[in-house]
Specification:
This protein is α/β, with parallel strands linked by helices. The protein has 9 helices and 10 strands. The radius of gyration is 20 Å and the shape is elongated. The termini are far apart. Its EC number is 2.1.1.198.
């Protein structure tokens, strides 16, 4: 059996009992970063052989994992934090297992994008997760423009080194829409800033930022509350 196991995005207390049960029972753990996963396993007193499985070796490691599954062994896939397959390695392994008629399931748990969109205060009934945008301005703006007229709340992941540039490009592409900037979710210094894109730009320093950021931006013409939208849907 192939298990995709969600792990904490910051606070280790967010691990689920089922995740611990699976990690203790499998034959091997496929890890995006074996060092970080080793720390997680050690914290919960779990000792398992690890297989490096990341964006740079997905095909080669995927073949190895598939062979283990064909031999009747069980493998748990984890990423550095959160849910495997969401802007992290995982989906290609699911495809491989499905095509080979191998059993695959998921142990649900923390996902940063869901937490960020809920805490943003923006409409959550319909949103589009866009993941990480291109690193350079031209590519990033083209990436953004795909959703320029979308009514859905938009959710992006961004590096601390580029988040300010991202906000500036978002202002140029989308206009001064309501938005939220989330950082260090579930950790001691968890922070969610809400306001217009221009106000977030004004309060975001140019350097010394740390951690992964999630940017949530209102869809076009969708700054209304969830309850109002729900009422409109009922009338239809």
């Amino acid at each position: 059996m192939l298990y995709l196991v969600a792990t904490p995005i910051g606070n280790l207390n967010d691990i689920t009992l089922r995740a611990l049960e699976v990690l203790r029972s499998v034959d091997a753990v496929a890890s995006e970063d074996t060092r970080k996963t080793g720390m997680l396993l050690k914290h919960f007193e779990i000792s398992k052989p690890q297989i490096a499985f990341h964006a740079f070796n997905e095909q080669r490691a995927g073949e190895r994992i598939e062979n283990l599954l064909r031999q009747g062994q069980s493998v748990a896939v984890v990423t550095d934090a959160g849910t495997p397959g969401i802007s992290d390695p995982g989906y290609t392994l699911v495809q491989r297992a499905v095509q080979a008629n191998l059993e695959v399931t998921m142990i649900p748990g923390p996902t940063a994008c869901i937490m960020a969109v809920v805490l943003s205060g923006l409409p959550t009934h319909s949103f589009t997760f866009r993941g990480f945008p291109p690193r350079k301005t031209v590519g990033r703006r083209k990436f953004m423009e795909v959703d320029k007229d979308s009514p859905h709340t938009l959710v992006f992941y961004e590096s601390p080194y580029r988040v300010l540039d991202f906000l500036k490009d978002a202002l140029e592409v989308y206009g001064d829409r309501p938005a939220a900037l989330a950082n260090d979710l579930t950790k001691m210094f968890e922070k969610v800033e809400r306001g217009s894109l221009s106000s977030l730009i004004a309060t975001t320093p140019e350097s010394k930022l740390k951690g992964e950021y999630i940017v949530v931006i209102a869809g076009k013409g969708r700054e209304t509350s969830n309850s109002a939208d729900a009422d409109e849907g009922e009338e239809e």
